[in-house]
């Protein structure tokens, strides 16, 4: 039964990731926490997120904002290092509560038409927060979504640049987690089971992407952020 639930989670999350440029870790990780211990769920999410980013990156490589990508990567370095200590030593429940609250507050501000002025230091800060969330709970997306929505980034640029960025932060995070805390057979068996529905979700998402308008894209962003924030709070309190 758990494997059926895993397949459904991965299928839905991969579909969202491919069609919108985000969504796999944001939707997948909270539900994976229901099936697996925290560290197992985080590593499964990272492995599958690496697969989906690797499958898509060649097709959309020409849409990447390379300057923005480089700033996000540079900013993420310190966050990745700090995040591994959170992963190893801090109670994941408290981190989930904090992240959930921040997501809800940020999303409400965006719905109220909050705008953010694009700046190099803000690119770096966004990368830093994202990096911290990747090594700690395997969810780099929320700060990127909030920032890119605030500055009005086009959906094509958002999807391609975040996927390229994810390849870096997920790979580094997985290596750091395995090096400092190890891994398990359950992580890799579950990941292999999830790859077929992952591929189906990718294909469906690629088909839908061209039909999503910028307005609909923003609405999907807000719905996913609010859902994730509320879900993290409810399941952590």
From TrEMBL:
<dbReference type="Pfam" id="PF01925">
    <property type="entry name" value="TauE"/>
</dbReference>
<keyword id="KW-0472">Membrane</keyword>
<keyword id="KW-1133">Transmembrane helix</keyword>
<feature type="transmembrane region" description="Helical">
    <location>
        <begin position="68"/>
        <end position="88"/>
    </location>
</feature>
<dbReference type="InterPro" id="IPR002781">
    <property type="entry name" value="TM_pro_TauE-like"/>
</dbReference>
<dbReference type="InterPro" id="IPR052017">
    <property type="entry name" value="TSUP"/>
</dbReference>
<keyword id="KW-0813">Transport</keyword>
<feature type="transmembrane region" description="Helical">
    <location>
        <begin position="33"/>
        <end position="56"/>
    </location>
</feature>
<feature type="transmembrane region" description="Helical">
    <location>
        <begin position="186"/>
        <end position="209"/>
    </location>
</feature>
<feature type="transmembrane region" description="Helical">
    <location>
        <begin position="216"/>
        <end position="234"/>
    </location>
</feature>
<feature type="transmembrane region" description="Helical">
    <location>
        <begin position="163"/>
        <end position="180"/>
    </location>
</feature>
<protein>
    <recommendedName>
        <fullName>Probable membrane transporter protein</fullName>
    </recommendedName>
</protein>
<keyword id="KW-1003">Cell membrane</keyword>
<feature type="transmembrane region" description="Helical">
    <location>
        <begin position="94"/>
        <end position="112"/>
    </location>
</feature>
<keyword id="KW-0812">Transmembrane</keyword>
<comment type="similarity">
    <text>Belongs to the 4-toluene sulfonate uptake permease (TSUP) (TC 2.A.102) family.</text>
</comment>
């Amino acid at each position: 039964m758990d494997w059926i639930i895993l397949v459904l989670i991965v299928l839905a999350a991969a579909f969202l990731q491919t069609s919108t440029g985000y969504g796999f870790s944001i939707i997948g990780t909270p539900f994976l926490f229901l099936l697996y211990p925290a560290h197992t769920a985080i590593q499964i999410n990272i492995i599958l997120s690496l697969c989906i980013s690797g499958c898509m990156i060649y097709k959309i490589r020409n849409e990447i904002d390379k300057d923005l990508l480089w700033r996000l990567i540079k900013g993420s370095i310190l966050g990745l290092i700090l995040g591994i200590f959170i992963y190893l030593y801090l109670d994941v429940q408290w981190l989930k509560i904090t992240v959930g609250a921040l997501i809800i507050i940020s999303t409400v501000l965006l719905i109220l038409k909050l705008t953010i002025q694009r700046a190099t230091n803000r690119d770096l800060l966004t990368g830093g927060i994202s990096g911290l969330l990747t090594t700690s709970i395997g969810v780099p997306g929320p700060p990127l979504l909030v920032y890119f929505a605030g500055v009005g980034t086009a959906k094509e640029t958002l999807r391609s640049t975040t996927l390229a960025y994810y390849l870096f932060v997920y790979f580094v995070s997985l290596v750091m987690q395995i090096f400092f805390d190890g891994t398990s057979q359950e992580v890799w068996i579950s990941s292999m089971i999830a790859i077929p529905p992952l591929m189906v979700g990718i294909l469906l998402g690629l088909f839908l992407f061209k039909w999503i308008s910028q307005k609909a894209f923003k609405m999907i962003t807000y719905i996913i952020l609010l859902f994730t924030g509320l879900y993290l709070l409810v399941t952590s309190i």
